[in-house]
Structure of Flotillin-like:
Amino acid sequence: MYKVASASEYLVITGAGIPDLKIAKKAWVLPGQSYAVIDLSPVNYTFEVQAMSAEKLPFVLPAVFTIGPRADDREAIEKYARLLASCDKNSKHVEELVQGIIEGETRVLVASMTMEEVFKGTKEFKEEVFDKVQIELNQFGLFIYNANVKQLVDVPGHEYFSYLGQKTQMEAANQAKVDVAEAKMKGAVGSKLREGQTLQNAAKIDAETKIIATQREGEGKKEEVKVKAEVKVYENQREAEVAKANAELAMKKAGWAKEAQVAEVEAQKAVAMKEAQLQKEVERMNALTMTEKLKAEFLSKASVEAETKAQEANWKLYQEQKAADAILYQRGKEAEAMRAAAEAQFFAKQKAADGEFYAKKKEAEGLVELGKAQGVYLSTLMDSLGGNYGAMRDFLMINGGMFQEIARINAGAVRGLQPKISIWTNGGEASGGGGNAAMKEAAGVYKMLPPLFKTVQEQTGMLPPNWMGTLPADN
């Protein structure tokens, strides 16, 4: 069957085809399914929470909470439907659940506060209770729409608030008495103060009036003196301006007289200058006339002579140009001949160089072929000798006449040498007694010197110095 919930209600459907539960405003309830209707409208819960402050003072906290499921949170509605859908929202079970949460959180919070803090900070206390209770109600899907904490009430036998009220009343009464006495004092003092201020202000005004009158009188005199001084200054200025105007007029008259005299002198000088210029022009014209006359007399003669000389000069110039053209033509031909000879010589040298290059190229090719042939020869010879390098070297030296050449060079080295062999002795006398032995040795050395000098002279051609002695002449 088809079910529709009202504006503040939801359908909670469970059963076949639904894994957990289904929440909807309207839906078909099929066979094998069951449904329940939950009301989301909030409910007011009134409590009188008994608590104890940090000073161990008990009191009663009347409070009214407006609580209901959160209508704008799908998850909260599911929690409420799952946990509290079977209970009426006005049932004792729900009320005890909410009351237990509120009393527990309130007592815990109040136990950490003094009575003065609870009494003076009602707003902060309310917000703190609201936040802590809301945290606990979230697990049931409930929401606190409003919380109102009433005036704190004494527990019978503990009249803290009554005594506090009496204290406040007494303090207010005493303060009122003090205020009345202070008001009377202020009235009496104020009256005397106003009378004194009136007299002081009157005297002050009289003194200020006299001062102002004196100031005004002095200012009047100052203004009068000032006006007189300004009038005198103005009169002096006018007199100075008149004197200045008279002086300027006199200066202008003198200037005009001077200009008239200068103009008269300039006129006289201008007339004289004009006469001099006219005289100069007359003399210039006379000179020009004389010059033209002389030109006319000598022009014809000079023209004839100039024409004759010009013709002669032109003839000489023509001859010189022709001679120069002939020389230039001859030198041009000589240059062409030299260029042709140079080209022929260059061609001949180029051909000779090409021939020499070809010969060198062929010679190099021949050397290459010769080297290849010698390589083949040496390789064949080495193979024939069984790879014996020493035998091949001896064969090549013998075949090339190396040993004969060595013998010839050695023979030429000793050819023409005439070695001289000198043999001398220091005597073969037998040595006598010990006394003459030393003398005999010295005599032997002296006997050895002449043959030594003779040998040196024969071998090198050098003679000993005169102080050492002279050699006997050869027979």
